[in-house]
Fold this sequence. Notes:
Layout: H1 23-27, E1 36-37, H2 49-58, H3 71-81, E2 88-91, H4 93-105, E3 111-116, H5 120-129, E4 132-137, H6 146-152, E5 157-163, H7 175-184, E6 190-194, E7 219-224, E8 237-240, H8 243-252, H9 260-269, H10 273-297, E9 308-312, H11 316-325, E10 328-329, E11 331-332, E12 338-342, H12 346-359
Parallel strand pairs: 1-10, 3-4, 3-5, 5-6, 6-7
Antiparallel strand pairs: 2-8, 7-8, 9-12, 11-12
Amino acid sequence: MNWTNFFKPELDAMTPYQPGLREEQILEIAETKTIHKLSSNESPFPPFPAALGAMQESLRGLNEYCDGSCHELKQGLAGEHQIPFEQIMVGNGTNELLMLLAKACLSPESHVVYCWPSFIVYRMAAQITGAKYDEVSLTNDGRFDLKALLAAITPETKMVFLCSPNNPTGGIITHEELELFMNEVPRHVMVVLDLAYNEYVSAPQHMMPLSFYDGKKPVVILHTFSKIYGLAGARVGYGFAPEPVIEAIDKVREPFNVNSVAQAGALASLGQVEELERRRAINAEQRARLCKAFDSLGLRYYESHANFVWVFVPESQQTFEQLLKKGVIVRPFAFGGGLRVGVGNEENTLATITAFEQLFSRQEC
């Protein structure tokens, strides 16, 4: 059976998204029964108590379809961010929103630009629509190079993706850099700001994207409940966009794309300012401990403002496999000569530091 003719030719260049290894997979090869999963940028904290309660209560209504418009959640987000209700979209994670933007806006005649390495879904969104794309190198310190992105824009460019903090390097775009970029980017280009890790940032120089959003220009801002809110398994992303963009998204998204349990948990997570600050502070503390340990081992790393650190190691795949045996799951990539190490709780941090200390010494580096 020749299946080739059944599938879109755009799929030929694509490879399926590869999730991180599961804990049960590691137990088969690890030399310990204690596993520290730090490969998927997940929060070490569970959902907020209010969110758990709301999700539990929502189970009573699973015999009915969820609210396909996410009306209550959009109302909550509108109040939280002071954005008009009509300019808010909700999706099954920001992954879906990125794909929906691509389906609604891109075609084989379109051109997309973004920096690399960054979130793999930018590439996938371009590929699945047949759009041409250019991947611009990051700056030397692992941040989006906005000047280089501007230089890569052509008359055919329809969309540019910006990620801050960037995944997998953790570098941020400063407000000054974004201001210069927004002043020069052509009006025919949609600027998509992916802020999945925004809540972890405390640096005062970080960009303030709402300063450049007026609901009229082609600017889209994306957020998620997957990270600091601890709802990765529920899959809830949201974004702000001009009304014509929202209308186009509604034409291509699946009905009932965000389930009722997820909607309830996300809505109940809003307004938890003190808990967000507590989690941000703990993440910063554990991230600093990791970086201090890397310094003592002579390992170079990118300055990160997220819940992970990209650390350079001599043999990344070999180091990844050695860490697995010690029960520490990180994320290797086919580029860059390093590993993305998630920031967890104190126990995770101590285990990670111990494993790295066992593998490296000052002399070896």
